[in-house]
Design brief:
With about 300 residues, the chain is α/β, with parallel strands linked by helices. It has two domains: about 15-110 and about 260-290, Rossmann fold (3-Layer(aba) Sandwich), CATH 3.40.50; about 115-255, 3-Layer(aba) Sandwich (Rossmann fold). It has helices at about 25-40, 55-65, 75-80, 90-95, 115-125, 140-150, 165-180, 195, 240-250, 255-270, 280-290, and strands spanning about 15-20, 40-50, 70, 85, 100, 105-110, 135, 155-160, 185, 200-205, 230, 250-255. It has a six-stranded mixed β-sheet, sandwiched between helices. It has a six-stranded parallel β-sheet with strand order 9-8-7-10-11-12, with helices on both faces. Helix 5 (about 115-125) packs across helix 6 (about 140-150). The longest helix is centred in the last third of the chain and has 16 residues, at about 255-270. It is globular. It starts with 12 loop residues before the first strand and ends in a 6-residue tail after the last helix. The relative contact order is 0.13.
Length: about 300
């Protein structure tokens, strides 16, 4: 284990994550591990803030000297509508998860979620979205963001699948406008049939299925084959039921821990201009979530 945080003083620079609720957040775990590893006189905290208070609280934090802030549910869309400046990543995602405090007191919004997804895919599978066929399970906010990122990174075809087919159709219509160069399709059923999943190079599960270890897997071994990759965006278990099915069929699989890690890395870079060390951040997350001990 790394040495405990040595304490704070009058020169300690604060960072934070805001949400409502916030007790579940793992952001302080990985960011404080990075700050310790770099020997920075800074600390990362978590605060529960009601959505209607968010923009006022953010402006106060800027005046108080906070170095930067992350946002989680339900604040990403609130900030998108309320900050003074939106960077291209936030505009593309339609949400904000990283706040920069400008010298003039204004709020600048970024999104690092797409970066986290792309880096997680690259790290886990040595793959990219370029020219790939991608199947996305779930058409909520995470599924929409994944579709936008995949298209931005050059995916050739995206297939959307959702328990409520009308929701998949609605998202497809929105994406037709935003992603004119990407072929967008809607799965013919829920769950999608094997012939539609097996044609995909990469499958992304953005649903909550798999959050519980006794959840029935949505897909069967017939839905996978060797050479494919599945990224299950939940990270509460090392291996979700769907990941196990994919592995048994010879496909590669990974959970969402890499996404969580890499979106945090990018936020850290935006605030400090420094790339934080991945190993201590990853080790801190794995110890907290899975109880794995580490001497990193």
């Amino acid at each position: 284990m790394s040495q405990p945080f040595p304490g704070v003083n009058g020169r300690t620079r604060p960072f934070a994550v805001l949400g409502h609720p916030i007790a579940h957040t793992l952001s302080p775990v990985m960011h404080n591990a990075a700050l310790r590893a770099l020997g920075m006189n800074a600390i990362y905290l978590a605060f529960d803030v009601k959505p209607e208070d968010l923009i006022e609280v953010l402006r106060s934090m800027g005046r108080m000297g906070f170095g930067g802030v992350n946002l989680t549910i339900p604040h990403k869309e609130v900030a998108f509508r309320g900050v003074d400046h939106l960077e291209e990543t936030a505009i593309r995602a339609g949400s904000v998860n990283t706040i920069v405090f400008r010298e003039d007191g204004s709020l600048e919004g970024h999104s690092t979620d797409g970066y986290g997804l792309t880096q997680a895919v690259k790290e886990a599978f040595e793959k990219s979205f370029e020219n790939a066929e991608v199947l996305i399970l779930g058409c909520g906010g995470a599924g929409r963001a994944a579709a936008l990122e995949a298209s931005e990174r050059g995916a050739a075809r995206i297939r959307l699948a959702n328990r409520n087919p009308e929701r998949a159709e609605k998202l497809a219509q929105e994406l037709y406008v935003e992603l004119p160069l990407t072929a967008i399709h809607v799965a013919s059923a829920w769950p999608p049939p094997p012939e539609e999943t097996r044609s995909a190079d990469l499958l992304l599960n953005s649903t909550a299925l798999g959050m519980k270890p006794d959840d029935d897997p949505l897909l069967t071994p017939d839905h996978f084959h060797p050479g494919q990759a599945l990224l299950d965006m939940t990270y509460v278990h090392r291996e979700t039921p769907m990941m196990k099915v994919a592995r048994e069929a010879g496909a590669a699989s990974a959970n969402g821990l890499g996404m969580l890690l890499h979106q945090g890395v990018r936020s850290f870079e935006i605030w400090t201009g420094t790339t934080p060390p991945l190993d201590p951040m990853r080790a801190a997350l794995r110890e907290t979530i899975y109880g794995e001990s580490s001497d990193v």
